[in-house]
Amino acid sequence: MVGPGQVMVSDVVAESVAVHGFWTRSRKSGLVYLIVGLFAAVVFGLATKAGETATFTLSTKPGGAGLDLPARAFAIGFGLVCALTGAALLAGYFRRHFGATTAVAIVSFVLSFLCWQVAGNDLPLVGLAQQTLFLAVPLILGSLAGVLGERSGVINVAIEGQLLTGAFCGALFGSIAASAWVGLVAAAIGGGLIGAILAVLAIRYLVDQVVLGVVLNVFAMGVTGYLYDRFMQPNTQAYNNPPTFPAIHIPLLADIPVIGPVLFQNTIITYLAIVLVVVVSLALTKTRWGLRTRAVGEHPTAADTLGIRVRLVRYRNVIMGGLIAGIGGAALTVGSVGQFGKDMSNGRGFIALAALIFGRWSPTGALLGALLFGFADALQSNLSSLNSVVPSQFLTMLPYIATILAVAGLVGKVRAPAADGKPYVKS
Amino acid sequence: MSSDEERPGGGPADPDGGAPGTGTETATAPAKRSGPRAAVPGDAKRTRTGIVIDALTTANTFTVTVLAIVLALAVGAVVIALSDQAVLDSMKYFFARPGDTFAAAGHAIGTAYAALFTGSIVDPETLNEAWWGMTSWSSVLSPISETLTYAAPLIGTGLAVALAFRAGMFNIGAQGQAMMGAIGAGLVGFMVPWPPVIGVIAALLGGLVGGGLWGLLAGWLKAKFGAHEVITTIMLNYIAAPSFVTWLVTQHGVQQPGRNDPISKAVEPNAQLPHLFGSGLRANLAIILVVGAALVVSWLLRRSTLGFEFRAVGSNPNAARTAGISLNRTYLLVMLFAGVLAGLGGASIVLGNTPNAITPSVVGSIGFDGITVALLGRGRPVGTVLAGLLFGALQAGAGQMQVTSQVPIEVSTIIQSLIVIFVAAPALVRAIFRLRAQRVGALGQNLAKGWNG
């Protein structure tokens, strides 16, 4: 029988070998990319019929300008690129540029897959990009809400509930007032209310924040579902028929080919989301508010010593986050189809949470994470319409699998703000 | 702010002279591996007397739980009243005749909660008729049977969440694990023409394996890559249902012949769970199975070395690792067991309730409800069984409530989530009812860990 002490020593040794030995993180990842890349080159390459072309259209009109690629060659080619980056990592190169190399590997793998799927068909790239941004908007706003709360030390798992409440309030009050703007404001307030409940219970009553977030999601689901059945369903015309925001064409910029239709022909909520990312990003690093937020999130006791009112900062941030997530919910109703449906947030709040972790708790990182998941979602719906051989149900798994892969270590060891999830109690 | 300052953690040391630190649990580093008995405080008699005296006036576990339920039902009553058409109509002339509003509200709440009771416990009218021989006794048992039928899967998933809580993990994946359990049980149940008894056992095992593997996957992702289980289990939920199950049940050989909607073949009668009170009532063997599972989990956590390790990891992973407990092994085993328990919950639906087939929505929301059940049960097996029975009764009653007074079934979801919020915020309940401060450990605290573990 081995004593506890010996076990500990051998554990430490094993760990240090794992950290400093041959199999570093980049080597392990390299091996994975190598295998996956070769798999792509062989399987996607062989599955593609020789002589077929994959068309990636750049124009918004059908039959417009586009790229015609020989599908088979490019499927194999991109697979080999992925394998090559893996081999380079395995050989010890590019260790400093692990992130960029990983990006190249993933992108080339996805392109290889696309060449196979699109062979003999065409994929509208501009439409894909438009959809990506459109689907990412609730995720961007949701993860931004998470950034605000968690940088100040309050974990927000209730993003899902805030999105749902926002979507509900947007549809309900937008219909009653027959104005999308009223819907937008009501959505923000609805999300803010859930944020306020979260704040009071987490900060004042010290409830476990992860548990609280999950239960608040159930609560939001119950309340919106109840009111939907009671009022919206029997009287759709009066309570669930809000006007929607039109796409705003920004003059001149909207006419730029490719970029114009993607970036400058969106609804007000999309512009708002992008502006908010920039504002929060700058504010976190450049303003007094940002410094205080980060101080409270990393070391509340030190912040308190300097006279910062820890709880006040947290209250403000969590409620502000709720307002933003509520706007994200509005993107699902008044920013999109208009009508509310039960559980229409459908896990987006949790994906926003993953985007937040993926983006390492920074607004720009969260934006990139949200766009990645938006892309997985957009790709899924585009490929389903191409009559892919992969069953559509497996394609709908794409965003979720992407999330698992992202959280399982493509981004390495992430570190949350030090005081994240810990209530502050003055001693 | 005064109520926050009395919170334990910085409180006085355990009077029993136990190791310093958290007093109530076996939180200390297991330096002596002499078994769980070493963790039990020595002076049991004093503690017991103390609890009896304090019980009535202090915010202890029992009073807070009862008051949380009362509060939640009160809020639920307000929701029912405010959404009632008669109440809303009479509100238009509230200042002229306020009595009308209160009468309408009283009527709405009264009929709704009466239906909640008659749908889940016993209907006095039926009882009276049965007493005089005008109806059969089985119709008296019908509400109880419904409650047990709803409760059984909830207890299964509740145990899955509770066990993970005790090891410091938050298993939000009971939903997906239950779905995979339902799939495993269903597939085994209709693929083979089973003989009696063996069929039930085989199908149940299929369910346990299906749920267990899905749980193990999340445990592996945590042990191997450090992926936080909250995120991975949520994603695994969405992968299992609706994506995977919809694909599966529309495959040839799985889909029920003659159907175009996603539904599998029905489970062989020999693989179905036997009914408890005759074929007229829905209650089946599932409730006995899950109570048995709760006893096993209870034994595991209290009496076995493995359970001791689980709790040690849950209390303080660093201390547990220092004492030679493998964290990775614990993560794998806990999630495996949790998946098995949730799988039992899912299997019990497919094998116990009509139409005995796999559909994308067959498990309902038992996984998410399991979280609330485990929280109300405070991560303890017995508490989970009681909480499961309560929520089972709520759901059975909500069905009756929807039939008799058109109150949407979601009211039970609202009440459930409120109960858990109040239970998790004892300081709030204390403040509302002006109870004396609690002396025992915090309720519902520190069950789940943040992103930094």
TrEMBL record, chain A:
Main localization category: membrane
Pfam families found in the cross-reference section: BPD_transp_2
InterPro entries: ABC_transp_permease (IPR001851)
Top-rank taxon, per record: Bacteria
Keywords: Cell membrane, Membrane, Transmembrane, Transmembrane helix
Topology relative to the membrane: Multi-pass membrane protein
GO cellular component, one term: plasma membrane
Keyword check for Transmembrane helix: yes
GO molecular function terms listed in the Swiss-Prot or TrEMBL record: transmembrane transporter activity
Transmembrane spans: 31-51, 71-91, 98-119, 125-147, 154-174, 180-203, 210-228, 262-284, 318-338, 350-373, 394-412
Keyword Zinc-finger assigned: no
Compartment annotation: Cell membrane
Name this protein carries in UniProt: ABC transporter permease
Organism whose genome encodes this protein: Actinocatenispora rupis
UniProtKB/TrEMBL annotation, chain B:
Biased composition (Low complexity): 13-31
Transmembrane segment boundaries: 62-82, 102-122, 147-165, 172-192, 198-218, 230-249, 283-301, 331-351, 357-376, 383-401, 413-433
Membrane-topology descriptor: Multi-pass membrane protein
Top-level lineage group: Bacteria
One Pfam family, short name: BPD_transp_2
GO molecular function: transmembrane transporter activity
Cell location: Cell membrane
Location of the region described as Disordered in the Swiss-Prot/TrEMBL record: 1-43
GO cellular component terms, semicolon-separated: plasma membrane
UniProt KW keywords: Cell membrane, Membrane, Transmembrane, Transmembrane helix
InterPro entries (UniProt xref): ABC_transp_permease (IPR001851)
Name this polypeptide is given: Nucleoside ABC transporter membrane protein
Source organism per UniProt: Actinocatenispora rupis
